[in-house]
Amino acid sequence: MLPQHLRTLAKVTGELTVEVSAATQRSVLDAVEEQYPMLCGTIRDHATKERRAFLRFFACQEDLSHESIDTPLPQEVAEGREPLLVIGAVAGG
Amino acid sequence: MSGVRVLVGTRKGAFVLTSDGKREEWKVEGPHFAGWEIYHMKASPVDPNRIYASQTSGWFGQVVQRSDDGGKTWNPVGNKFDYEGDAGTHQWYDGTPHPWEFKRAWHLEPSLSDPDTIFAGVEDAALFRSTDGGQNWQELPGLRKHGSGPHWQPGAGGMCLHTILLDPSDAKRMYIAISAAGAFRTDDGGETWKPINQGLRSEFIPDPTAEVGHCVHHIAMHPSRPGTLFMQKHWDVMRSDNAGDHWTEVSGNLPTDFGFVIDVHAHEPETIYVVPIKSDGEHFPLDGKLQVYRSRSGGHEWEPLTKGLPQENCYVNVLRDAMAVDSLDKCGIYFGTTGGQVYASSDAGDSWKPIVRDLPAVLSVEVQTLP
Asked: Can you give the pLDDT of all 93 residues of chain A as single tens digits?
């Protein structure tokens, strides 16, 4: 699930679904960016693949933001029963 | 009948304002890209339906949008701005070395001859070019690496390349300006660059007449006289009649020579406009009175233009890319404020009306004169 601004940019509504063989942050985001190239650079850095500073990754009520991008995602996410949430920091202005 | 399209970038989206040649009734469309900062929008001079927009966000970074139908629909194009080679360092605010980091595109300047070619001025300061309609961007590294780059230092707004002027008489000549490094010129299509800051004097830097380090806010040029440049510096309004090789101050009788915007009348190359701002510590008009100042003599002698502008309790700013002119007769002048107003004059500045009053803070204004 993406923040609303990125759903608008990608011209999608609701959750995105991508097929990956081994579900990790890297493989999921690679697949998302391949399917929606306009999202390249908006969730993670083009070159380093580091998460943008004001975004966090959550799944199954856990903060995965500081996990290695190659750590397997929770089984529920891999099986499509729970979403990987990309959350923008709440800030005013 | 001819018409006008005004492209307005704001803190929270883009707006497109249109009118016929009378410029009395306006249609306001937007926001496009709602919630994002739109630093700049500009159309190709050879294809008026081709418009580029720089869309940025502290959360999501840089996006470049392109419209091929005059702003009705938009599609994101490339947003990968990689510095060429080892990026190296510039100076941080405290004088220590700081790595060059891309933050956003401040200014998009479409080519005068090819709708697919466009230049982007970015923060941290560098010049990029796309030759495929914005899909792919390559740095012109000669600017950043010409020698003084490691000594450049950001201004309060960031180390941004905010002005790009293309010489209509010489495809190889281009001018750019950086806060707070100064102005630079290339005569070979961007391969090599030279600082063009001689004659500038900035009391707030260690060497007030240094080759680089001047906080240039904006530069304007009339296409019929591409060797004559007008500059609004942090303080001082300047002009050069030799392509920037030397500058002289033309602030004259301005009540304050601090400001951000400067522009030139479409048909009178010695008629120029500025919006004086009280000071670098108080970014609003003097005495709460919003006044455009016009010089019909290329500087030195200035007259206030106030008819239709608020003359009390006005404490907005007018940012560096937020003034533009149309090429109708009489020349139209447009500017946007941080209070969200876009003011227009259809009589070369003699009188003003707001086109729209309550947009988000305006970052940039560009104008297209349509056939």
From this structure: 999 999 999 999 999 999 999 999 999 999 999 999 999 999 999 988 899 999 999 999 999 999 999 999 999 999 999 999 999 987 655
Nearest residue to B342 (alpha-carbon basis) of B17, B3, B13, B5: B17
ipTM comes to 0.93
Query: Which residues in A have their CB inside 8 Å of a CB on B?
Result: 3, 5-6, 8-9, 38, 40-43, 46-47, 52, 54-55, 88-89, 91
What pLDDT was estimated at residue B159? 95
pLDDT over 90 (residue B229): yes
**Token representation of residue A89:** 């920091």
Question: What pTM did the predictor assign?
Answer: 0.96
Q: What are the Cα distances from residue A67, in Å, to A25, A42, A52, A60, B193?
A: 9, 19, 14, 14, 45
Q: What's residue B87's pLDDT?
A: 83
3-state secondary structure chain B: CCEEEEEEEECCEEEEEEEECCCCCCEEEEEECCCCEEEEEEECCCCCCCEEEEEEECCCEEEEEEECCCCCCCEECCCCCCCCCCCCEEECCCCCEEECCCCEEEEEEECCCCCCCEEEEEECCEEEEECCCCCCCEECCCCCCCCCHHHCCCECCECEEEEEEECCCCCCCEEEEEECCEEEEECCCCCCCEECCCCCCCCCCCCCCCCCCCCEEEEEECCCCCCCEEEEECECEEEECCCCCCCEECCCCCCCCEEEEEEECCCCCCCEEEEEECCCCCCCCHHHCCCEEEECCCCCCCEEECCCCCCCCCCCCCCCECEEECCCCCCCEEEECCCCCEEEECCCCCCCEEEECCCCCEEEEEEEEEC
**How, if at all, do strands B342-345 and B333-336 pair?**
antiparallel
Rounded Cα distance between B9 and B17, Å, is 11
pLDDT surpasses 80 at B333: yes
User: By the 8 A CB rule, do B278 and B290 touch?
Assistant: no
CA dist B339 and B336 (Å) reads: 8
Q: Do A42 and B61 touch (CB under 8 A)?
A: yes
Distance CA B247, CA B143 (A): 21
Which among A9, A43, A47 has CB closest to B76?
A9
pLDDT for A92 equals 59
d(CA B191, CA B186): 7
Tell me which residue in B34, B36, B59 faces A55 most closely, judged by beta carbons.
Answer: B59
